[in-house]
Amino acid sequence: VQLQASGGGLVQAGGSLRLSCADTGRRFKNAMGWFRQAPGKEREFVSAITWTFGRPYYTDSVKGRFTISRDSAKNTVYLQMNGLEPEDTAVYYCSATARGRALNDEGFYTREASFDLWGQGTQVTVSS
């Protein structure tokens, strides 16, 4: 598996977790991201970061609580999740893309179809 995600677990509401995803293939990429899928729901965008300039993107529901970062030397992306809520319970998937966005397409890295490489999921469970 080229993208190896880790860091999931069980935490109480208000707690924190940090997800990590290492790109072991060291391939060229323009961005890495995190998506999640809750039981009975479709997979949804959580956060992404451009690889060269580190520009972050967040879905509204996690702004102010989650922070995405990357370590280029380690070829790894992180998702620091604070203030976790039961609604954050899901399988979290790491993704990467070598695709670049058009200048006028601000939402490019928030779309699942923009990413061409996916890792295995890691379960995050938040108890109330």
Please describe what this structure looks like.
A hairpin with a 6-residue loop joins strand 4 and strand 5. The strands form 2 sheets. The protein has a 6-stranded mixed β-sheet with strand order 2-10-9-4-5-6, with no helix packed on it. The chain has a 4-stranded antiparallel β-sheet with strand order 1-3-8-7, with no helix packed on it. The termini are far apart. It has 128 residues and is mostly beta strands. It is globular and about 40 Å long. The model has no long low-confidence stretch (mean pLDDT 95). The protein is built from no helices and 10 strands.
Show the helix and strand layout:
Elements: E1 3-6, E2 9-12, E3 17-23, E4 31-37, E5 44-50, E6 56-58, E7 66-71, E8 76-81, E9 90-97, E10 117-127
Parallel strand pairs: 2-10
Antiparallel strand pairs: 1-3, 3-8, 4-5, 4-9, 5-6, 7-8, 9-10
Key features?
128 residues; 10 strands; globular
Brief digest:
By secondary structure, this protein is an all-beta fold. Helix content is 0%, strand content 49%. Strand 5 and strand 6 form a beta hairpin.
- How many extended strands? 10
| Mean residue pLDDT | 95
How are helices and strands ordered from N to C?
EEEEEEEEEE
Largest sheet: 6 strands, mixed
Q: What general outline do the C-alpha atoms trace?
A: globular
Strand content: over 45%
Please, how many helices? Answer: 0
Structural class: mainly beta
Distance between the termini: 33 Å
Low-confidence stretches: none
Radius of gyration: 14 Å
Strand order of the largest sheet: 2-10-9-4-5-6
Helix content: under 10%
